[in-house]
Input
Amino acid sequence: MRTAVDAGADAVYCGFQNATNARNFPGLNFTPDELAQGVEYAHARGAKVLLAVNSFPTAGRFDLWRDAVDMGARFGVDAVIVADIGVAAYVAERHPDLRLHLSVQAAASSPEAIRYYVREFGVKRVVLPRILTIPEIKEVKSEIPCEIETFIFGNHGLMVEGRCSLTNYATGLSTNMDGVCSPAAQVHYDKEPDGSVATRLGDFTIDRFGPDEQAGYPTICKGRYLAPNREDAYYAFEEPVSLNLARLLPQLIEAGVEAFKIEGRQRSRAYVRQVVGAFRTAVDQVLAGEEPELADLVALTEGQKQTQGAAASKKWR
Amino acid sequence: MTGKLTLGPILYHWDAEHKRDFYARIADEAPVDTVYLGEVICSKRTPFFDAHLPEVIDRLESGGKQVVLASLSEVVIRRERKMMKEFCATDSHEIELNNTAGLYDIDGRPHRVGPLMNVYNEATLKWLADKGATHVTLPNEVPGTVAGKMAQAAADLGVGIELQVFGRASLAVSARCYHARAHCRTKDNCLFVCEEDPDGMPLTTVTGQPFLMVNGIQTLSQSYVSLIEEIGVMQDMGITHFRVMPQMADMVAVTQIFAKRIAGDIDGDEGAARFAALDLAAPLSNGFWHGREGHRRFGPQAA
Output
């Protein structure tokens, strides 16, 4: 968090070390003390802290989510981001002054769905799914009474977030209920005699890589599979590419996007410093009416496969 | 013993004739109380069956079944938004919502909430019930321990609580059509290639394990969920409705086994034995119910 604040982020999302947020991974996230200190650090430097409480509590476990919200309010976080209707209702009722953001996990992909959360819970900002084109973002913006935030750099996925139980089918841990996608404890790299590597999640092989290839992390929706009308294994869902909307930054600002989201919670400090710093500069240039220097941003994913995803066009559907 | 048997919507793209024949047989022979009708997966498919809908509704109602209309699950483009708005104006039948856009449009009028919505806890259930939800089908990944607590909360609220007990588990929906992708097309020029796979298109791992099934924008489990051995426990917990999903199987036989089990005419072992005799096209699973990997199958004593 300190790295992101120092590199110029206006706000940093974070979560507690448990199932209450959608990135419940070992070694990640905050203890209550760390969060309290983080809020102080960020506020002293003019940055905001947004608390992610964006997984789905199951019956009997709601207290854990309630406690996360209460602690966030006590530590003075600037907003909480939620996906579950029950959690949203709790925040609206008990902490009416606490700013509420709607997570992409709520899968609000139409003006009506977004208006529902605004009408019922007073949501102030919605994180849009990564499936909309720029004209669609503009249209949504014109029809909703709240701010919008879009992903600009990080993972690229087309499965509707918050409506996926693929990981649970293979591992017994749920993305919605436990906040995990492809848990590392169930990831295996099986080296075969010829030097090739099969990557596995639980009992299922997700992909196979030749001796000279770099084996990717096995995520079900990025794997290669066989289908009846395909000769070879193919990326049945999507290619393992990362999302980089750097070139579209000026158009996204023009479309009315209030906040840009960089995925940083599973990344190194050096990565966070570099990506946040480069986007900070570019956003400032666009807002000052200057031509932004985008070459550095584009270079961040160079050598890797990258995509402008849905934002640029919908040929991908 | 108590509990109603329901037949979920057909998730696959069966041609209109196939659907009409299917529902005619269900109307005449299947011991189900309620039938959910409607296109849930792809808005492009809806025109094919809309013309036959009134006739099928009549037929099912003449057979003594209650008909509930089910909404689309993905609402993004203008056409889908308009469809949802019109759907929410339905006053002839109960309706089931599968997208939050519907919660906006319904604006407090009575409705059911479908299994593709995220209702995982008592607080969400209570909020929805206070705003007109009369009946909720839980997501199929919830474990039995959670389902039991939800059944209790639903009873207190006077809301029906339903869970899928047979058929492929819906695991994900997407913005992209994977049927079109498999055939090197896009959603916009798909030529309805999904019609070729009335029980889904199988995806197998590179090591030859059957894994998933593709149905347009939806990804399902390869295995058929079956909770025939868990029915007794579910009844004791207070789950009021048991949903069977249409597959390319003898659905009259499937519903007969469940109806007998729900009525207490046969026990779980007998139900399982009758299932084994059906020679189904996919293995059975119940891992989600037991809080484990969804694809696995456990005996009734599993923790």
Summary: Chain A has two domains: 2-161+241-312, 166-235. The mean pLDDT of chain A is 91.
